Amino acid sequence: xxxxxxxxxxxxxxxxxxxxxxxxxxxxxxxxxxxxxxxxxxxxxxxxxxxxxxxxxxxxxxxxxxxxxxxxxxxxxxxxxxxxxxxxxxxxxxxxxxxxxxxxxxxxxxxxxxxxxxxxxxxxxxxxxxxxxxxxxxxxxxxxxxxxxxxxxxxxxxxxxxxxxxxxxxxxxxxxxxxxxxxxxxxxxxxxxxxxxxxxxxxxxxxxxxxxxxxxxxxxxxxxxxxxxxxxxxxxxxxxxxxxxxxxxxxxxxxxxxxxxxxxxxxxxxxxxxxxxxxxxxxxxxxxxxxxxxxxxxxxxxxxxxxxxxxxxxxxxxxxxxxxx
Amino acid sequence: xxxxxxxxxxxxxxxxxxxxxxxxxxxxxxxxxxxxxxxxxxxxxxxxxxxxxxxxxxxxxxxxxxxxxxxxxxxxxxxxxxxxxxxxxxxxxxxxxxxxxxxxxxxxxxxxxxxxxxxxxxxxxxxxxxxxxxxxxxxxxxxxxxxxxxxxxxxxxxxxxxxxxxxxxxxxxxxxxxxxxxxxxxxxxxxxxxxxxxxxxxxxxxxxxxxxxxxxxxxxxxxxxxxxxxxxxxxxxxxxxxxxxxxxxxxxxxxxxxxxxxxxxxxxxxxxxxxxxxxxxxxxxxxxxxxxxxxxxxxxxxxxxxxxxxxxxxxxxxxxxxxxxxxxxxxxxxxxxxxxxxxxxxxxxxxxxxxxxxxxxxxxxxxxxxxxxxxxxxxxxxxxxxxxxxxxxxxxxxxxxxxxxxxxxxxxxxxxxxxxxxxxxxxxxxxxxxxxxxxxxxxxxxxxxxxxxxxxxxxxxxxxxxxxxxxxxxxxxxxxxxxxxxxxxxxxxxxxxxxxxxxxx
Lengths: 325, 505
Prior knowledge:
The structure holds two protein chains of two kinds.
Chain A: H1 6-28, E1 37-41, H2 48-64, E2 68-72, H3 79-86, E3 94-100, H4 102-108, E4 121-137, H5 145-154, E5 160-163, H6 169-181, E6 186-189, H7 193-201, E7 207-211, H8 212-220, E8 224-230, E9 254-262, H9 267-282, H10 284-292, E10 296-300, H11 302-323
Parallel strand pairs in A: 1-2, 1-3, 5-6, 5-7
Antiparallel strand pairs in A: 3-9, 4-7, 4-8, 4-9, 4-10
Chain B: H1 2-14, H2 17-35, H3 41-48, H4 57-82, H5 93-102, H6 106-140, H7 144-156, H8 166-180, E1 183-184, E2 191-192, H9 206-222, H10 242-264, H11 270-284, H12 297-312, H13 314-319, H14 326-337, H15 346-349, H16 351-379, H17 387-406, H18 409-427, H19 433-456, H20 462-465, H21 467-487, H22 500-504
Antiparallel strand pairs in B: 1-2
Helix pairs in contact in B: 1-16, 2-4, 2-16, 3-4, 3-14, 4-5, 4-6, 4-12, 4-14, 4-16, 5-6, 5-12, 6-10, 6-12, 6-16, 7-19, 7-21, 8-19, 9-17, 9-18, 10-11, 10-12, 11-12, 17-18
């Protein structure tokens, strides 16, 4: 083995230095003027997830000075989109909407055969909390969550409770509620909020579990009563409705929507994207648009959002076997 | 007649020049989206929402709803002329509509479809104005149990869709049910028949499947002949004959009623309405053998039903704040973006807007009729394009359309696969209608059955506890028995043995 000449050493060092410089220059100039950022949305155009993402994309464009294009890639509860972002180049030009607990379920459930792991993603920031609620018909005998739980204890598996789909946030909220309170409900899986709400109004089911955004109309018309919100704070859209925490049940749930990049995206770029999301969410225009749709803005930076992922990992891991019973 | 008074006030809003223009723009755009295969009403409406962002709420909603029901008119055009369904709800129209076109009755088929759509839309809107309250109560009676019974009734009509061979029809029906099972199990969450493909987790996309089965298989079949020929040598009169009008009256009346009622029930889709209408028309027809050979009833019924469904589906949005179909869910999003929460209180809070929009349904449907009838002469000229050019264009549109449903190349291959399958089915004389019927109704039937059993924790008696469900199940039994008597006439005296179709000859 020969000894490396000084020249060679210098060349290697130079090369390493140049790569470093190139990388940091790449991060510093991010985003390049005419290079569009693709925001993948794993849900159909026109839905609540899509609408929130499009509002944010418009706001981010103004902050970053480049195009942010929304690409709808619906299918398999977002799994197609998550696969796409996991396999994209980690340069910050491809990001994706991620919905918790949905994405975690696809990672943790072996039946879903996902082509990605948790480590394949770099969380950027949280944008929206669409908190979960439990609602009953206005003329229901259940005035409070306690009434509902007492009856469920007295008649296990007899009280019907709807979800908007298998393994959705609603489903996991019910499983959590059962675990926290030692109750058992007859869980009925619908497809979407429309059919489930019809069943509640038609008295086919006893209680409805969904998100804040799904119950605004029926609450306003006085057809339903909301027993509680699964959040740490009351929802601005449901004045006077207490959180479950305040009623002594530590139940948090709903859809928590944020953004992710492929793992390996340079930290500077992730920070820039996260800051852009923060600034965009603070503009009046974005605030007003989100407010109209009943979407509650909640920004979390990369660090806190990553912690949220970890806590969901624990929760989902525990509840997946129960979701298949 | 408070409703009448409110409606007149609505007309004064809807007839304002700006709003009239938005209704016209929306209707035209809707027709265009309907004509383009693959881009369905839901995606089309969603794509055009930003276009309305700068309008005042009334104008925006008028335009978006016009796009929504306009697509139901447009979807028919390619179904009839090219055998390519523009969107799912018009798929069934391919069967008899295209046969009519080949016989030189394209103009008549398009006219009947436009008139039927108009009457269906009008009927549903009148129901919204005068009967919204009581009709909503009917919709709320439909829970999972009643849904299941309704789906069973729909599938029992399948036997009536048989051609020459009942065995082949039943085979195709079962195949449709099997295809309907592809995807995630709705209760256990296990993947079924997905072959490890994520794209199949949600089941097969319906639009690529029918584009292949009808459009592509048709191209393959015609490609056997000289490519210099055209679809139809003669175009014939554009105006329906007296006979055709007479035959359409019943199907249009029944289609209006059925489409409106199905529209009320959240979870029913426009394609269910059109397929059930077709199956019902064939079942009650005195000459069921004419179906599949260019029967005008097979165009009039479904085309009326799908438009009545589109307008009827807006009733629960106004009375309950519930989106009854995916497209209405997109519309609901548009309401919210304009700061309006749809629901009964909207009539009190914002009567100008609500009644303006409702009045615009009348105006929009009139515009669509005026827009569509003169264009028929232009559309039918498509039939004169030689195959060598026409096929290349149709194929390109179908590939783009299949891709566009979910931005997925996988769906293009699904379309190609079902095109080849459709070709084989045609060659061996397997009827496609029973398979498509079960493919549409199958997933809903399965889900509502399992939902019912989730409610009762596995007790089957829940299926007969509801009077509506029991009535629907009894009706299915009657349909099954009468169909069986027709197919196996040997069981009745005096009728010579042999298959049903032989007897008719």
